[in-house]
Amino acid sequence: MPLKIVRRLLPEWGTTYGPPGDGPFPTVMILHGSEGAWSGWSHRNAVLLAAHGFLAFPFGYSQGGNVWNAGSIHEVSLDRSAAALEALRGFDISSGRVGLYGVSRGAEHALLLTSLMARDGVPGIADAVAAHSPPDCICGAFDGRTFRDVGDPGWQAWDGAQRAWNWRGSSEVLLPTQPIEIERYTGPLFLSHGTADSVWSVAMTRRLEARLQAHGRSPEVHYYEGEDHIPRSEAENTHHTRLLDFFDRHLAG
């Protein structure tokens, strides 16, 4: 039986997943959350996109870690993320139209990277951006080695004293609690959130939506009633249907 999903190496960057054949294929770079690059969730999301005709690249940006430890999100170079996006756009089986999709800290990553590229006029900005369970502000660093469950002594979602992100050699202007200025982006934007999210409050996406609308933007926004940070089966099926439709409309045309 021939493979319906094929792994290919994006030279110097890592593995991609896509349909068989020579393409070109609409392309999506996937950004993982605090679970880290080793957990496999971003690869699972990449395979789902590949099964529906996309070339998908799970970009591992967390630092250190292994199959037992998530590693850290600390002083992560967003310049490197922009370079990965450009390398993916130039991959010989890519159509040249590239989207970004992130969940949780990956959603923060996607929105922040896009807003900075838009602000500074950096070429190669994503053609469409999707963010599930995003924060509306920059968050602090995260280290999987010190993570504790909610309620345990010392629990914190992130370390506000440490910087998570770095842009053009500096993290001093990317301070925790600073709003992410995604309203600078004029391209297609997909936001989604569970209304019972116990990690990032749904109020964050509601604030993003209100701010975008106040700036004349028209994001596509979906709220999943009663769903937590990661939707359950029925809601996740709905989410993936909407996500695939969004990328199909804006990347595959």
From TrEMBL:
Keywords: Hydrolase
Keyword Hydrolase included in the entry's annotation: yes
Location of the Peptidase S9 prolyl oligopeptidase catalytic domain: 157-252
Source domain of life: Bacteria
The UniProt record lists the keyword NAD: no
Gene Ontology molecular functions: hydrolase activity
PANTHER family reported for this sequence: ACYL-COENZYME A THIOESTERASE 1-LIKE, ACYL-COENZYME A THIOESTERASE-RELATED
Record-given protein name: Alpha/beta hydrolase
